Amino acid sequence: MASSKNSEIPVILDTNFLISAVGFGISLDFIHDTILCNHRIVVPANVRMELLSLNLKGKEDKMRRVALQLSEQFGTLELYGHVDDSLVDYASSHKAVVATNDSALKKRLRAIGTPVMFIKKRCYFAIEGEYQNI
């Protein structure tokens, strides 16, 4: 993806980011308030597959189902295989922001210079890393 001021930066949503946002009652619309440059929100195909296949019970399963429904309003990024590895592989060769609360994945992404969006204090989204000039 060529970098220019008119390019849209993909904001890639991870499984636990979607489920956590639902669980904490944070609207995904706040992503637009957090990312102040031209962007598009995408959900990898393997994240949707993971949301479909997670075997959860009770309240957690309800959050999973709502997260899956919400994911359908965004474009699909054709990634397959292990979710974390595919996100790191994609981010290493493309300019993107990855939205995750997974601390191990955050560490891997930050090690390669990828900006990471996460849920802070269970009430809002924050970003670690520079994204305006990617």
Helices and strands: which structural class? alpha/beta
Please write the string of helix (H) and strand (E) elements: EHHEHHEHEHEE
Strand order in space, largest sheet: 3-2-1-4-5-6
Fourth CATH level, the homologous superfamily:
5'-nuclease
Radius of gyration: 14 Å
- Percent in strands: 15-25%
Largest sheet: 6 strands, mixed
Tally the helices. 6
What are the low-pLDDT stretches, counting only 5+ consecutive residues below 50? 1-5
Instruction: Examine the coordinates and then state which fold CATH places here, giving the name of the CATH topology.
Output: Rossmann fold
Helix percent reads 40-55%
Count up the domains: 1
The top level CATH class name: Alpha Beta
Tally the beta strands: 6
Shape: globular
Distance between the termini: 10 Å
* Name of the CATH architecture: 3-Layer(aba) Sandwich
> Mean pLDDT, as a whole number?
93
Quick tags:
134 residues, alpha/beta, Rossmann fold, 6-stranded mixed β-sheet, globular, disordered N terminus
Topology of this structure?
Layout: E1 9-13, H1 15-24, H2 30-34, E2 39-44, H3 45-53, H4 58-71, E3 75-77, H5 83-93, E4 97-99, H6 103-111, E5 116-120, E6 124-128
Parallel strand pairs: 1-2, 1-4, 2-3, 4-5
Antiparallel strand pairs: 5-6
Helix pairs in contact: 1-4
How would you describe this structure to a colleague?
By secondary structure, the chain is of the alpha/beta class. The protein has a single domain (9-128), classed as 3-Layer(aba) Sandwich (Rossmann fold). It has helices spanning 15-24, 30-34, 45-53, 58-71, 83-93, 103-111; strands at residues 9-13, 39-44, 75-77, 97-99, 116-120, 124-128. It starts with 8 loop residues before the first strand and ends in a 6-residue tail after the last strand.
